[in-house]
Amino acid sequence: MIKQLKQYNFKRLWFILVVVIITTTIQSCATTGNKKVLYFAHSLPTSHPVHKGIMAMQESLNEKSGGKLQIKIFPDGQLGSEREALELLQIGSIAMTKVSASALSNFAPEYQITVIPYLFRDSEHLFRNLEGEVGKQLLEGGTEYLLRGICFYDAGARSFYTKDRPVNSPADLDGLKVRVQNDQMSVSMANSLGASATPMAFGELYTALQQNVVDGAENNIPSFVSSNHFEVCKYYIFDEHTMVPDVVIIGTKFWDLLSDQEKEWLEAAAKESVAKQKQYWAETVEENMKMLKEAGVEFIYPDKAPFVEKSKPVMERLMEDPKLKTIIDKINSN
Questions:
Q1: N or C: less crowded end of the chain, CB within 10 Å?
Q2: What is the dihedral of CA 40, 22, 83, 331, to 10 degrees?
Q3: Going by C-beta distance under 8 Å and a sequence separation of 6 or more, which residues neighbour residue 276?
Q4: The pLDDT of residue 11 is above 80
């Protein structure tokens, strides 16, 4: 316990140091002459299709603004975890980030609906809602928490993957310690399906799998590959319990400093990047599936009906909140 506490304190001290350095740096370089630079931090590797989408946004924004408004990207968790990046946005130390919608649910409660198991029927249903009235409500809803959404990126469907045994039904999850993202909805989702939810930072997961701290995890195919978790886990179960999008966020402290023209450039660049990112995602999944088969990963396609039935209490609990019920009803009727 003392060792863990020391590690935690060291991480927090390091994070505070980064905040001080970045704040000082950004204050001196965010605006140079007629050029503004938006510092964009995220935790994914540069090979990931979401990073490629961000790069498409960066290129488009540079073209539309004639170089007057630019994005500087800090990938690979250089400036901290998803939660830490959101905290940096809130205090105005960086301008933008990309996080899973589930991470946002800890800050803006409306995003909880994106982690409801089997709420979205398929990718078409997901983006019909995210690119319509529901999506607009979610993106703008975070403003009161100093986090304004810009657009949604495709993050596919999240499924379980395990080390030592296949999962063909919820009963097979009994007794398994499964890593989930550090938010209450992800914990509720995994527990409702019979697993023992174990929240932890994504960067710690590979070692945790190796050392049998957890028996498995859940994520999409590109993240399963880019993290090299397939080296340890040889069963990937396509139960596709959630379709949690990624969200591009700008801190309101920076958004409010942009002119109307600059906001227009940024939103147009983001919209263009969404279409490209979806294409990058589809291409990456196809390539990854071939590679995983060659690496000896066994794909399991269980009957989803028992998973859907067992996870229903998660949605029912959220619908006790009138505001969330209204959003869920819109999605179900769309």
A1: N
A2: -30
A3: 52, 53, 56
A4: no
